[in-house]
Design goal:
- The protein has helices at residues 2-10, 21-34, 45-52, 56-68, 87-106, 116-131, 134-150, 155-175, 178-197, 201-234; strands at residues 42-43, 72-75, 79-82.
- A three-stranded antiparallel beta sheet has the order 1-3-2.
- Helix 5 (87-106) packs antiparallel against helix 10 and helix 9 runs antiparallel to helix 10 (201-234).
- The longest helix has 34 residues, at 201-234.
- It folds into two domains: 2-82, Orthogonal Bundle (Arc Repressor Mutant, subunit A), CATH 1.10.10; 87-234, Four Helix Bundle (Hemerythrin (Met), subunit A).
- The chain is mainly α.
Length: 235
Amino acid sequence: MTEQLTGLAGDRALLGRTSTAERVSDILRSRIAEGYFPPGTRLSEDSIGGALGVSRNTLREAFRLLTHERLLVHELNRGVFVRVLTVEDVEDIYRTRALVECAVVRGLGAPPYALAGLAEAVAEGERATREGDWKELGTANIHFHRELVALAGSDRTDELMRSVFAELRLAFHVVDDPQRLHQPYLARNRQILETLRAGERDRAEALLAGYLDDSRAGLVAVYGRRVADAGQDAG
């Protein structure tokens, strides 16, 4: 926990002069997504509040916001913890992703499409793969899907999926095998990008639907085993 708190202390500058619960929640959301606070970690009000230099009330409101986003859970008489997803949670996340991401592609309209952000995300993934930086590959893959959602041009959709992707990363941290999770899909990211460049929206949607279905099945299989093993170890 000491290392995590040192990192948070460095985030104090992000709060500016007006520290708000929303800004604190943004910082904690990013730290949770990055794996600084893994699933199951108890978050200490005193330690985190001190590291960020915020009041207990501000921190509690930030915890409330992140609990609403399903990233944290409050356990009576025990405190606040980073949430551990169930297999059913993972399945539901992918249902949401399929509904939203496929709908975004379906609704793109006539080409050409604004694909610069999507292309940069693919390039980031390819660069990370050449360097063997699998954690960065995972970040690039999430970036790809965020940029895909951004094609809708909807702040509400972006906000919704920001929470969904952050929640998804809770499962990635439990599996803790970014190469296995993400490398097989890098070429498929490139394929979707090139299909959209060609203006083939319907084909891109079909590719994306198959992609998400395969990703869901692969993650659920591994995640289910990891959660079961953790339960046995705890017992």
